[in-house]
Amino acid sequence: MFKILKYSFYDLMRSRWSYVYFAFYLLLGVVLLFLNNDLSKAVITLMNVIIVLVPLIGTIFGVMYYYNSKEFTELLLAQPLKRSSIFLGQYLGVAISLSMSLILGLGIPFVFYGLFMSNAIWDFSLLLITGTFLTLIFTALAFNIALSNENRIKGFGYAILLWLFLAIIYDGIFLMSLIIFEDYPLDKLSLIGTMLNPIDLSRTLILLKLDISALLGYTGAVFKQFFGTNFGLIVSFSALTLWVILPVLRITMKAKKKDF
Amino acid sequence: MIKIKELYKKFGKNEVLSGLNLEIGEGGIFAVLGPNGSGKTTLIKCLLGMVIPNKGDVSVLGENIKKDSNYRHKIDYLPQIANFPNNLRVKELITMIKDLRGKTNLDQELISLFKLEPFLDKKLGNLSGGTKQKVNLVLTFMFDSPLVILDEPTSGLDPISLLRLKKLIQAEKAKGKTILITSHIMSFVEEISDEIVFLLEGKIYFKGTITELRDKTNQPDFEHAIASILTDNHV
After folding, report:
1. In a mutagenesis test of the B interface, which of A11, A69, A77 is the best target, namely the one with the most B β-carbons within 10 Å?
2. In this predicted model, what pLDDT tens digit does every residue of A35-60 receive, in sequence order?
């Protein structure tokens, strides 16, 4: 698996897109930190960008990489390699190179800004950790979609739909349901609803680490009570981990049964 | 060498292999023939574990292929269409496959046999179809495995490379290897193969030497023999 991972990673490191992605974060980091003196505002803006962009890039890149390397995959399948190691290697290659672009692109400007001496380091690390989780989750979901769809137009379509659903539509439905059922106690429901969508979960985690949860009113208090505690943090990270593990398991299952 | 029992494979509603039985002994060149869509490539991919059969048993060199992927160390496979990652150089591809499968020293010999030296530093995306096929051949013959499977080995090759390929195949046979070939070029098959396996509608229609096939169909030559099978069966 590690050999495949190595080659996929090199292959991606050579492609122009990894550099574009890296340069984008670098620029974003530099602009937000050096042209704007308020660190917590910079972190919030970064969060808004990461929460939407990371899943989008993860799904698109994952689907694109799978379809583009199809012939190469077939070449590998005829070699004495396990199927699961071929696909997991490719998956990790994509996910790790994307995460590296994110971490380095945002990390470098922060290091120059003097992050290690500021007390925003925890907010910032949390930002990078959730960003990495989101990359791992959405690349895995993208590989699932690509493995299940021979037709690449369909695959791309489903991938975009998935992103649209989790990033935008889910929130809409969630809010609507909160409004419709506002006469009932909703704290449990909204907690569970947040857990079920990795994007919402990441957003809530970051928001509550920043000291702006007071703005969220009563719901904020309930959320703070849950997510702000160690127990809440552990549960949320377990939920994110589960979001990685389940799609990855499905990749190995699907890969075992597929015809090439 | 190869034992296939009651092999079934469906793609959707399309039944490609329907209860195929085949046994191939050790040593010699076997040509797998059949009209388009008769299941030749599917059969080969089943042997390699790339296509997973609905039913049936396949064993290669006494090992059931369902168990693990190690039996593929003993197979060299030439895929039908040579499509490699485009931004890789020829040299890098060869090193990579060596890294994945193990060490070999045969690659230099094969590169000079097919006169590939000037292309080693070129990217695979910039190569012509014939040159890609030569790279494909180098990758296949590099490992000296007891079973060699060639899917349309002649496609895109110029006459001189074709001659070299024929010599190479004969040399491999002389080492006692089993070689499985599919091809639509009948003169090539007639010249090179010891035995014919003819697939029709997902089953083995005929297995034997070319002489036996001619006797069976009462035709003067090999091409007409094949044609008569096809017309008799309304393909």
Report:
1. A77
2. 877 777 888 888 888 999 999 999 99
Tell me if B50 and A260 make a contact (CB, 8 A cut-off).
yes
Q: What pLDDT is stored for residue A58 in this prediction?
A: 94
In this prediction, residues A116-142 reach a mean pLDDT of 87
Contact A11 B11 (CB under 8 A): no
pLDDT at A140 over 90: yes
The shortest C-alpha distance from A161 to chain B (Å) reads 26
What lies within 8 Å, CB to CB, of A59 at 6+ separation is A138, A139, A141, A142, A145, A159, A160, A162, A163
Joined together, the tokens standing for residue A116 give: 């290690």
CATH number, domain at B105?
A: 3.40.50.300
**CA atoms within 13 Å, Cβ hemisphere of B16:** 21
Residue B82 is given by DSSP the state: -
Q: How confident is the model at residue B234 (pLDDT cuts 50, 70, 90)?
A: low
Alpha-carbon Rg for chain A in angstroms: 19
Task: Print the domain residue range for B162.
Answer: 2-232
Q: Do A77 and B50 touch (CB under 8 A)?
A: yes
Closest chain B CA to residue A14: B87
The distance of B156 to chain A (nearest Cα, Å) reads: 18
Measured between alpha carbons, how far is A186 from A175 in angstroms, rounded to an integer?
11
Rounded Cα distance, B32 and A241, in Å: 49
Comparing CB atoms, the residue among A75, A257, A260 nearest residue B84 is A75
Counted domains in chain B:
1
